[in-house]
Amino acid sequence: xxxxxxxxxxxxxxxxxxxxxxxxxxxxxxxxxxxxxxxxxxxxxxxxxxxxxxxxxxxxxxxxxxxxxxxxxxxxxxxxxxxxxxxxxxxxxxxxxxxxxxxxxxxxxxxxxxxxxxxxxxxxxxxxxxxxxxxxxxxxxxxxxxxxxxxxxxxxxxxxxxxxxxxxxxxxxxxxxxxxxxxxxxxxxxxxxxxxxxxxxxxxxxxxxxxxxxxxxxxxxxxxxxxxxxxxxxx
Length: 235
Fold this sequence. Notes:
Number of strands: 0
Helix content: over 70%
Order of helices and strands: HHHHHHHHHH
Strand content: under 5%
Shape: globular
Distance between the termini: 56 Å
């Protein structure tokens, strides 16, 4: 009986630890979207979408290397996508505005696609860099395909006119291939960064669980707070 109770407590601690990881990595991604992504948008930087989504993929890859849980990736995406709702709160935009829902869904599609790919390739990604490259490229194409169909046929966005293509196939051949190229590079780099981070002892945080959770909470609040300031500043 005592043994069963200890297993249940361990499972709960593991689940809570995983939830904290989802919030930390998702907040980091959302923070970068709001700050760096906002800055690149202001200066009209080329391929901004592929770069920022690639950074998001690298963040998820780092989380995958540390936790070994593909199931957490959609959660990270949902947390990151929720940062897009800050525009609804700050600027009183409609939540169903294409300026809100399209980028939010692009993040969610990305996390779902990578989560599905990681289920099948997680062990190979850990052993072979080329598998990571292939996983990044595959995820990029899947996400671009899901996004273009959603934007064109669900939200009726003028996506083709804005980008200068005339069909779904052209969008995938243009934006999808560029995205796949960025992601093929950034996924293995993110996974490598996660592996190195996982080997760090961080003895103080490891011994004092309360301190670990306090530091995680502070980091999450920092990401949200700075993101709010950045958006209000016009990024």
